[in-house]
Amino acid sequence: MSKVLIADSGSTKTDWRLINTTTKQVEQLSSKGLNPFHNSKSQIIEEIVRTFGGLDCNEVSQVFFYGAGCSSKEKQLFVMESLQAVFRVAHIEVNHDLLAAARASLNKDQGIILILGTGSSCGVYDGDTLSISTPSLGYILSDEGSGVAIGKSILKNYFYNKFPSELSVSFNRRYLLNKETVLNAIYKEKLPNKYIASFSQFAFHNKHHPFISKLINDVFTELFESLIITIPDYKSLPISIVGSIGFYYSDFIRSVASSFDCKVGLILEKPIAGLTLYHTSLE
């Protein structure tokens, strides 16, 4: 009996699928996020052992791990060595989350792939690998079209007193914030990007208000102006999107894409189901 293990790992959570290659049965598991920038090898090994404690790890013949923070060869090797310590006889591949998004949503077709979650990233997929990948510069310099971008715009417009009065009342009632609280959270607390992105929820709950609707459209317009239209032949390539922001703001994204003569195809909240289909189709 052999089993194939597939993982999609973010910074906070990892989705796992364990596939029995004989029966085609798929088992779903989850664990903490395993990011090489945030976790040591011993922490990764400990979490994997905790998650798969009841499994004979020698039955796993292949491991396909896709993770945030795994774009460089150095970090891929770091995670691979951690996995190899547990799955000793398995063939292991480690790739970054943008390739996971591409394979999950495009399978073996060509197209532009976007991840739109807390942060964002963009690339062009040739049906097998990423032929072009725009470097992610982090939430301070880039992350166009992300939860951070929407959250930043919400906070700036609120503190610059640009909100209409009814929006200011609603925001005050919900958050009870002052400038010092926000700046402290951004500059002194952990995970400031997630803190900023949390305010995208206010945009979503008020997305039909004309002011917020324009704000959201402006964020996605910047995404297309900064990233998409710089891609050669961008109008002829379908755009697939993975991530919570892409999923919940799909109507806005499709509208903005249309204004740039772009076609948006599949939008997935999470890639793990598509990844499972991709790898089982290779059997």
Describe it.
There is one protein chain. This protein has 283 residues and is α/β, with parallel strands linked by helices. The protein folds into two domains: 3-89, 2-Layer Sandwich (Nucleotidyltransferase, domain 5), CATH 3.30.420.40; 110-269, ATPase, nucleotide binding domain (Nucleotidyltransferase, domain 5, 2-Layer Sandwich). It is 44% helix and 22% strand. It has 13 helices and ten strands. The protein has helices at residues 41-51, 73-84, 97-106, 138-141, 147-159, 165-175, 179-187, 192-197, 200-205, 210-226, 244-248, 250-259, 272-281; strands at 3-9, 13-20, 26-32, 60-67, 91-96, 111-116, 120-125, 130-134, 239-242, 264-268. A five-stranded mixed beta sheet has the order 3-2-1-4-5, with helices on both faces. The chain has a five-stranded mixed beta sheet with strand order 8-7-6-9-10, with helices on both faces. It is globular.
Count of spatially separate domains: 2
What is the SS-derived class? Answer: alpha/beta
How is the largest sheet built, in terms of strand order? 3-2-1-4-5
The oligomeric state is single chain
The termini sit apart by 15 Å
